Amino acid sequence: MNLNVIADNFPFLLQGLFVTIKVAFISMLFSMFLGTFLGILRYLKYPVISNLVGLFIDITRSIPLILYIIFIHFSISPYLYSHINFLSVIGIDCLEMYSAILAIVIFTSAYVAEIIRSGIESVEKEQLLTAKSLGLNNFQTMEYIILPQAISRMKPALCSQFITLVKDTSLASAIGLIELTRASEIVYETSMHEFEILLFVAIIYIILNCLLKKILSVKEEWMSNFEPNV
User: Fold this and answer.
1) Is domain 4-226 annotated with CATH 1.10.3720.10?
2) CA dist 76 to 60, 162, 174, Å?
3) Using an 8 Å Cβ cutoff, are 77 and 151 in contact?
4) How far apart are CA 114 and CA 39, in angstroms?
5) pLDDT tens for residues 9-51?
6) What is the pTM assigned to this prediction?
7) Rounded to a whole number, what is the distance in angstroms from the first to the last CA of the chain?
8) So what's the pLDDT on residue 219?
9) Is 2 left (phi over 0), alpha (psi -120 to 50) or beta?
10) Which of 113, 124, 170 is closest to 146 using CA atoms?
11) Structural domain boundaries of the chain?
């Protein structure tokens, strides 16, 4: 096994790793926010809105992510990137990265929405009656009673979904984004050391996802914000 090829190309692979982490982290934040919003709308069952959200979720989950990435990159992203680049404030100045984040957020938010909805519905109805008896309105009930317990129950499913998201960033190589997987392809195509490079990249993905699982599994200080207050 020739480890020199890894050492020689390590800076380039490291750049790809930073792109992967950046895309994954930003996509997690936005998909969690959008998915929670859609999940609550789906749960509230307003006739028109709930049906539209359900249609979006069903359509999104029926389409492969790579198709989403390619379609958005060559149809929607060029216009949005040049006119409404809302990601420029966080330093996203690359069309390929913009397209990848946009596609992954839309795609993942559909799955997160279903996780949120199922988590909310798992909260016992008796607690809703208790909240009403305490004089809480619907918003307060959702904030203080339902969401804290639902999020606690959804943690395993959300953890699994975000681990999948990290791996899905590799699909952005289809539109030319040089993230970790694409960087490894470039290296082994020029060095002809496929085994060493792919093994190294596989280990990096394992480490990334193990760290992510550890972070999401440990009850950190920010999780105290989700504890029930009644």
Assistant:
1) yes
2) 16, 25, 16
3) no
4) 6
5) 999 999 999 999 999 999 999 999 999 899 988 888 788 898 9
6) 0.86
7) 60
8) 52
9) beta
10) 124
11) 4-226
Give residue 216's pLDDT: 77
DSSP secondary structure of the chain: ---HHHHHTHHHHHHHHHHHHHHHHHHHHHHHHHHHHHHHHHHHT-HHHHHHHHHHHHHHHTS-HHHHHHHIIIIIHHHHHHH--TTGGGT---HHHHHHHHHHHHHHHHHHHHHHHHHHHTS-HHHHHHHHHTT--HHHIIIIIIHHHHHHHHHHHHHHHHHHHHHHGGGGGGGT---HHHHHHHHHHHH--HHHHHHHHHHHHHHHHHHHHHHHHS--GGGGGGS---
- pLDDT of 93-103, one tens digit each? 788 999 999 99
Residues 6+ apart with CB under 8 A from 181: 16, 20, 169, 170, 173, 201
Alpha-carbon span 148 to 109, nearest angstrom: 19
